[in-house]
Amino acid sequence: MKAIVIGATGATGRELVKQLLAKEWVSEVVALVARKKLPDHGKLNQQIIDFDKIEEYADLIKGDIAFTCMGTTLKIAGSKEAQWKVDYDYQYQFAQIAKRNGVPTFVLLSAMNADSRSSVFYSKMKGKLEESIVNLDFSRLIIFHPSLLIRPNTDLPLEKLSANILNGLNKIGLLKKYKPLRVSDVATAMIESTHHFNHKINRIEVEDILTLIK
Question: pTM of the full predicted structure?
Fold first, then answer.
């Protein structure tokens, strides 16, 4: 099985690539990256590309499953327009090429509150992306809606505080659907979902993720 991944150098994407490479049934992982950050591996084909010119690399986007974990924050991007380019444009263009090249399964890491009608910019952007990719009509589309992602060794105080609060509420039975998730667990669920969810469109919520990682 050949997988293609974008967003491979982020916290979840890096973990996804590592886990895919460890699977005996995976023959090759093509990671499209803006700069080389991943360690070498015999099954890893790491390709440095310019995402603004992704059509020039269309021949690389061929395989059995395409995964995208791409995303940035408004703070890092610097503007809503720049964030839209990364979170919407790059991922949608990747999906378009994958569909055109006959990739049958597409796995999208989205967000819990994705809603194209939302007044919140981030939620609306994620919702618009989902709608656009649904309209591409893949043979199988798997969309993940995780809650707060816990990255290893995070240095963001707010991220730590939010995770601690939500974990506390979960221990007393509140807000289970907002249970924070380790990026390693989300990566595991993304891989496992390809063996368990076979509808044309599959939306994976927190409860599904927790089931997949058991």
Answer: 0.90
